[in-house]
Design goal:
binds magnesium ion; 9 helices; binds zinc ion; Rossmann fold; binds BIS(adenosine)-5'-pentaphosphate
């Protein structure tokens, strides 16, 4: 099962992708998480990516496409995966389609989680992320058991650098300009599934399981 998660920043792609990965035992591949782990480890890729991410801009396709194409060719991705945050531009989608085609494969589902811009800024200001394992929480909608401590690994939870309201607005603008065209791209490919992302996390996951049946 090869799945793509589409949706604005903060729509809940990561939240649902982690649940899908654990339910269906396939890897969750998030380009955002890969870049953040590179930033944390001080790699060359991390240094380059940070310049763009902190401004709410996309990391250039040249740094992104090969990374994902290599990742999905690894052994644990044989039976599928859930891609979260990639593709994000038409050239990225084309690179992915080509790489898959060369192996006689294709994306099975592109799940688009729709949330209006108005809801996004509130959601982001309440998000807390774990620096240890990448788990995400929301102080109101999905709180950790102990305040500011990760349920999974016990490390401290923080507000992401790019979750400040002014950066969130920039990320939304970039989303509408560069990523939203993918909705038509995957509609034409016949694999788009749209969901209302303003519902409860568990309700959305129930609908995802239904459509993956
Ligand atoms: P990335 O990490 O992918 O960020 P994003 O797309 O902006 O999305 P987010 O992770 O912010 O949101 P999400 O949809 O995963 O929502 P979440 O589940 O956390 O990318 C970051 C940056 O990296 C980009 O800006 C770019 O610079 C760079 N980058 C990454 N990939 C790239 C690529 N392919 N090309 C170029 N550059 C790239 O949920 C948000 C919050 O809401 C959480 O607190 C959650 O608990 C809560 N929540 C979730 N669902 C619900 C619900 N149903 N109801 C209430 N609250 C909910
Ligand atoms: Mg995410
Ligand atoms: Zn953790």
């Amino acid at each position: 099962m090869r799945i793509i998660m589409l949706g604005a920043p903060g729509a809940g792609k990561g939240t649902q992708a982690k649940m899908i990965a654990s339910e269906y035992q396939i890897p969750h591949i998030s380009t955002g998480d890969i870049f953040r782990s590179n930033i944390k480890n001080g790699t060359e890729l991390g240094k380059k990516a940070k310049e763009y991410m902190d401004q709410g801009l996309l990391v250039p396709d040249s740094l992104t496409c090969d990374l994902v194409v290599d990742r999905i060719a690894q052994d644990d991705a044989k039976n599928g995966y859930v891609l979260d945050g990639f593709p994000r531009t038409i050239p990225q989608a084309e690179a992915l389609t080509e790489a898959l085609k060369a192996r006689g494969e294709a994306i099975d589902y592109a799940i688009d989680i729709e949330v209006p811009d108005e809801n996004i800024v509130t959601r982001m200001s309440g998000r807390r992320a774990c620096l240890g394992c990448g788990a995400t929480y929301h102080i109101k909608y999905n709180p950790p058991k102990a305040e500011n401590v990760c349920d999974a690994c016990g490390k401290e939870l923080v507000l992401r650098d790019d979750d400040k309201p002014e950066t969130v607005q920039k990320r939304l603008d970039v989303y509408h300009e560069q990523t939203q065209p993918l909705i038509s791209y995957y509609t034409e490919a016949g694999v788009l599934k749209e969901l209302d992302g303003t519902q409860d996390i568990d309700v959305i996951f129930g609908q995802i399981k239904e459509l993956l049946k």
